[in-house]
Design a protein that fits this description.
Elements (H helix, E strand, L loop, with lengths): L1 H18 L8 H5 L22 E4 L9 H14 L5 E8 L6 H22 L6 E7 L10 H7 L1 E10 H7 L2
């Protein structure tokens, strides 16, 4: 029996020694590297503007037709107008200098009405929109050439300082 005890002791010390060994050293490259960069926090979104910005759309000569580029601009204006703004909008129809005063006033009104109809068809409340024609009386570009005429054949969509409730009350 004594022999068994002697054998058991060295076996226990072998087992104990195998667990008591220190862990292998960490390579220097792993210690010297900085931690991975942390992704920057997303920048806070700026608050939306407090007022709707004015916009301008342009027309072909002697036309009140809303071509695809004009419809896209009106869609963009509509999208902005729907973002919590309650401002009234005035659509000002304008023409170039060619044609009589009466004809240009009527054409400017058709242009303003076409833009208003498109915006109301999209869902903008009609009581927010007023139209007016200035005909050829308010040219933006001076000159008597095609470049000036292109600039003057337009509708200006102008946000008003009034809210639509004030406009509705005034129109009663």
């Amino acid at each position: 029996m004594k022999l068994v005890r002697i054998l058991a002791v060295p076996l226990v010390s072998l087992v104990a020694c195998s667990h008591a060994q220190p862990p292998p050293p960490v390579p220097a490259e792993a210690i010297a590297q900085p931690p991975p960069p942390v992704a920057p926090a997303a920048a806070p979104m700026p608050p939306p503007p407090t007022k709707l910005a004015a916009a301008t759309i342009y027309f072909a000569f002697d036309s009140a037709e809303l071509v695809p580029a004009v419809r896209a601009a009106l869609q963009e204006f509509y999208d902005l107008a729907q973002q919590g703004y309650d401002q009234a909008i005035r659509i000002e129809g304008n023409c170039d200098e060619r044609g009589s005063r009466e004809y240009n006033l009527a054409l400017g009104q058709r242009r303003a009405d076409a833009a208003k109809k498109y915006l109301t068809d999209l869902g903008l409340a009609a009581d927010r929109i007023t139209t007016i024609s200035y005909g050829k009386e308010r040219p933006r570009a001076p000159g008597h050439d095609e470049e000036a005429w292109k600039e003057n054949r337009r509708d200006d969509l102008v946000p008003s300082s009034q809210t639509r409730n004030a406009v509705s009350q005034d129109s009663r």
